[in-house]
From TrEMBL:
Domain of life of the native organism: Bacteria
Organism: Bifidobacterium colobi
Protein name as annotated: CTP synthase
Length: 371
């Protein structure tokens, strides 16, 4: 197919700025649609295009961010909310929440209905907002989060960026606290936990700020209060947050996170585990969440073979038992997602149930310490 130089230029510029492109005249519109029909471009949203190969290289959360950056460029007065704001704030969550490709916008009036097949409005009276600022610096794509009371013009924002930085996108979103409240009310406990954990881990919000939003709303914020009770920034990724939340949701005792065991017989001397329970009868139960990348990602395996990684894990378990651990549970993402395999392993290891013993119904502070 004959090269359309304008479309190529739009694609190149958009990819550099981590967004899609949109047409501005009939010639570009016709050329873009023709290339969509021939499989060279994709159209994930109305008047939003990208090279098919480039688009397929992005994970669902980054695809969502590309669409939002494009829409914000076209409509700079829009404020993004809900899971769309969570994506722009780089909060962790299950990519399945982006499956339908819906973009959520904050609106001060009207109804919470879809005005377009891929756009849904969230009614928020005077929403607290932040600007997610993206810029290029030393060939790196960087992000800066600026609160609502900061100047939001391009010239004012540039004063907060490093010298020689190139401003690429300014995306208004609901504040981190308001975003957590909206998502906590919309999604189940086990799906929202990763957002709360990652927001606290990044230090972009406090529990008190989330409580202030809840206090200002005339609605039942019970689900958000439950999330605040248990959220723990010591969960290092979304998989661990999902596992942690599922354990709690199934009624088991709240585990301690990232506990360090001293193992003098080991060359490392210490081992840190994902979850641990110290029971009243003296047992020490460890649960390790195994992400697939632990076995297939060279960056995680130091380029070792799967067999080498498995052998290392077995040796690690031997050292943990020498350090006093009485039971070790290993679970993966699919077992957590299906719930029953995780529950069966917890029951077989005799992990205490919180409902059976109030001592285990505990929560943590912002540093992850158990109260």
């Amino acid at each position: 197919m004959k090269t359309h130089h304008r479309i190529e230029q739009l694609c190149n510029d958009a990819e550099q700025k981590r967004r899609c492109f949109y047409h501005t005249n009939d010639s570009e519109r016709h050329a873009a649609r023709t290339r969509v029909q021939r499989g060279l471009l994709v159209r994930p949203h109305r008047n939003v295009y990208a090279r098919q190969a480039y688009w397929n290289s992005l994970n669902p959360a980054e695809q969502c961010r590309h669409v939002i950056r494009t829409l914000s460029t076209q409509y700079p007065n829009r404020t993004f909310a809900g899971i769309s704001a969570a994506a722009m704030l780089n909060l962790e969550y299950s990519w399945s929440l982006n499956r339908e490709g819906t973009i959520f916008l904050a609106s001060s009036s009207g109804n919470s209905v879809r005005t377009h097949s891929s756009i849904q409005h969230v009614i928020i009276r005077r929403p607290p907002t932040h600007n997610v600022v993206h810029y290029l610096f030393n060939q790196q794509f960087c992000t800066l989060l600026m609160p609502a009371n900061a100047p939001n013009t391009a010239d004012s924002i540039m004063t907060n960026l490093p010298q020689n930085a190139i401003l690429t996108n300014i995306v208004p979103v609901t504040s981190p606290a308001r975003t957590l409240v909206d998502c906590g009310l919309q999604y189940p406990f086990v799906q929202a936990m990763a957002m709360f954990d990652s927001a606290l881990r990044q230090g972009i919000v406090t529990r008190e700020q989330v409580m202030e939003i809840c206090d200002s709303l005339q609605k039942d914020c019970g689900p958000v209060l439950r999330l605040l009770r248990y959220t723990n920034p010591l969960n290092e990724n979304g998989g661990e947050s999902l596992c942690y939340a599922t354990i709690i949701d199934e009624g088991f005792a709240v585990p301690e996170l990232q506990h360090v065991f001293i193992a003098p017989q080991s060359p490392q001397g210490t081992f840190r585990v994902d979850f641990v329970w110290h029971t009243e009868d003296g047992r020490v139960i460890v649960l390790e969440f195994d992400g697939t990348e632990k076995y297939v990602d060279p960056a995680m395996t130091d380029n070792h073979s799967v067999q080498r990684v498995v052998n290392d894990e077995r040796q690690r378990e031997d050292f943990l038992k020498q350090a006093g651990v009485t039971a070790i549970i290993r679970v993966n993402y699919n077992e957590v997602r299906q719930r029953n395999p995780l529950v069966r392993k917890l029951l077989e290891a005799h992990v205490p149930m919180a409902r059976a013993h109030p001592f285990y119904e505990r929560y943590t502070d912002v540093q992850g310490r158990v109260w």
